[in-house]
Design goal:
The chain starts with a strand and ends with a helix. Helix content is about 30%, strand content about 25%. The radius of gyration is 21 Å and the shape is elongated. With about 325 residues, the protein is an alpha/beta fold. The chain has a seven-stranded parallel sheet, with helices on both faces. The longest helix is centred in the last third of the chain and has 15 residues.
């Protein structure tokens, strides 16, 4: 079977959900080999193995933290040179996209970004032109690098195999990859909610909130979901840019997307239209968002969301 290289990411030393999704996609195509760019312990390796990893390669270098993504792409290229994969999978995101682009250049590989599905032959499905078209693409070179949208598949455990041990992998980081040093980091204050790109439920607010995101946050907390915002809400200063959903923000693909007070401009739809189910709440019955909605509610979002939260509390 072909080898599929998967770049893993972690949250509090535990493999992220997006990593387990990548392993599920990788298992469709071939034998998943995981690359970890940090120290990894036995419980984490066991989780990776339970989701299909046949090998776990640990690559550690101080340059990964001290510099921007160039050292990571260089290290991944060296691993690929040894493992000889036919496919490399990364999570679509700010860092994942840049690593993928740099890696494709280094390997002379094909590149497909923001894929939402992957067939057994490596054919990727993705939306293009602001979501106006759905396309299928497959690389025409020996190696294809693909970034997958988070929440595009439910992670699937596999049958228990022989134990997987961590294999240290030594790399050499060139001076050319050390061109941009990280001089400071400002840690974001945790909200206790799941990350926007990884959440299975996202509740977003737009211009219709009038700046009051209380009902949006209350519903997100009641559902165990993440909070998002439209560009209009972000531009108005009502919510931080890090939570913007859309073509110029974060692309999400949750199981449930709630659009509260969002008209549905094409820029926003491009960032959420691959959601499995969409609930729209808007006072304007002609709002474009209703064209994407599986369920639409015409009414005041504050009253509607407050009612849903109260209903969920009664059922708890």
């Amino acid at each position: 079977m072909p080898t599929v290289l998967v770049l893993a990411t972690f949250a509090d030393a535990v493999p992220s959900r997006t990593t387990l999704e990548l392993l599920t996609f990788a298992g469709r195509v071939g034998e998943p080999v995981v690359v970890v760019l940090e120290e990894v312990d036995a419980p984490a390796v066991a989780i990776l193995a339970a989701h299909g990893a046949t090998r776990v390669l640990s690559v550690q270098d101080p340059a990964f933290d001290a510099y921007l993504v160039a050292p990571k792409s260089e290290a991944l290229a060296q691993v690929a040179g040894t493992v000889s994969p036919s496919l490399v999978l990364l999570t679509a995101g700010v860092e994942g996209q840049e690593i993928a682009g740099r890696l494709a250049v280094r390997l002379g590989a094909s590149l497909v970004t923001d894929a939402a599905d992957l067939d057994a032959d490596g054919t990727a499905t993705k939306s293009v032109l602001a979501g106006g078209w759905t396309t299928r693409a497959r690389g025409g070179r020996d190696v294809t690098v693909v970034t997958m949208k988070p929440s595009s598949v439910t992670p699937e455990p596999v049958e228990t195999r022989s134990p997987v041990e961590v294999e240290p992998f030594a790399v050499t980081i060139s001076d050319a990859a050390r061109g941009a040093r990280v001089t400071a980091r400002d840690l974001r204050v945790g909200s206790g909610r799941p990350g926007l790109s990884e959440a299975s439920i996202v509740v977003s607010g737009g211009r219709g909130t009038g700046g009051d995101f209380g009902p949006v946050e209350a519903l997100a907390d009641a559902l165990g979901g993440a909070v998002g915002a439209s560009r209009a809400a972000v531009d108005a200063g009502w919510y931080p840019h890090a939570y913007q959903v859309g073509q110029t923000g974060t692309t999400v693909s949750p199981q449930l997307y709630v659009a509260a007070g969002i008209s549905g401009a094409i820029q926003h739809r491009a960032g959420m239209q691959t959601s499995k189910a969409v609930l729209a709440v808007n006072s304007d019955a002609e709002a474009p968002i209703f064209a994407l909605a599986d369920l639409g509610v015409v009414g005041d979002l504050h009253a509607v969301l407050d009612g849903v939260v109260a209903g969920l509390a009664e059922r708890a």
